[in-house]
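User: Fold this; tokens only.

Assistant: Input:
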Amino acid sequence: MKQFLIVAAASLALAGAALAEGMTHKVAIHVDENDPAVMNMALNNVQNVVAYYKGKGDTVQVEVVTYGPGLTMLVADKSPVADRIAAMSLENETLTFAACGNTLNAMKKKAGGDVPLLSEAKIVPSGVVRLIELQEDGYAYVRP
């Protein structure tokens, strides 16, 4: 019985320490439209989620996943939100941007050459598959 009480007390202490440190939340935000209003709404969602959880003492990992026409959000010379992405990435190290490799390859083929992305973009093989992986990893899914 004494061992049980010691283990229970240790478990409660660890749980209390975890709560004191705050929780970590995970959010995947999906952008598949070449519409500046949708892109800005997605970035507004990021800012609002981060501010909300920061106010509670929690952290949040956010990944914005782009594919199809939404990949324009991350194309260096075409993104209408490039400045916001740069500023937000500097302010929040847990914010990442995923660019669909399938879409990028199709854009390169159509352009007949390279399609440079913003430095904040990381290429994933498939945007849809990335969203599936994130959800399987416990990410909440948001589509603005």
